[in-house]
């Protein structure tokens, strides 16, 4: 599969995986290995990556030498909190600057607060961060975030953790058509077909967590997601046949067929 390029870095996998909600760090590692993901997201406010001395650290299960960490601001509801969280992550990860920004609007829907998201993005980009940003599926907001300098736009497919799949493919296509940075579907994927559809639409990658971690068999689901992302990308590159209503086009030859004799 052709590589994914984000902020000048090249990745062979177009599947990004979250590290939360698994039974333990061992299961996290097994699922991510099966997914083939190279980029892993980490909720700094919920996962120990060294800030809690004496507790098990994700860094031991997923060494930064083997995976690209994508610290995120899950649980932040203001621009100030998000900026503070990612500055802490940069210190904990020795100057790491590739981050995922998300500023939530409320704890029930976890829908993004785009006013606070825009403010945080401006501050972080000015501070030297390479910002991948979770956002609504609004083409105008996506355009504004790219203009600020975000290195990837990450519109939701549906609400975080909902598993509802892609509810508005038309808005995603509008974002994809105008964006000059990678577009990564973030949130709402529930099963492999959702991931395949996102890639067939032309998204550059898919990020997921709950769809894998909450599956009955997370390891098997991780493997299925890897295959779905690869198949969806190949289908997009191949170019699907046009849809035709009532346009007969037999797949078998129409010449040289036996025809009934007429009297």
Description:
With 263 residues, the protein is α/β, with parallel strands linked by helices. The protein is built from nine helices and ten strands. The strands form three sheets. Strands 5-4-3-10-9 form a five-stranded parallel beta sheet. A three-stranded parallel beta sheet has the order 6-7-8, with helices on one face. α3 packs parallel to α4 (114-126) and α5 packs parallel to α6. It starts with a strand and ends in a 25-residue tail after the last helix.
Could you list the spans in which at least 5 consecutive residues all have pLDDT below 50? none
Distance between the termini: 59 Å
Rg computed from alpha carbons, rounded to a whole number of angstroms: 21 Å
| Largest sheet descriptor | 5 strands, parallel
Side by side, the strands of the main sheet go 5-4-3-10-9
Return the string of H and E elements.
Answer: EEEHEHEHEHEHEHEHEHH
Count of DSSP helices? 9
Helix content: 25-40%
**Overall pLDDT score:** 92
Tally the beta strands.
10
Q: Strand percentage, roughly?
A: 15-25%
Structural class computed from helices and strand pairing: alpha/beta
Overall outline: globular
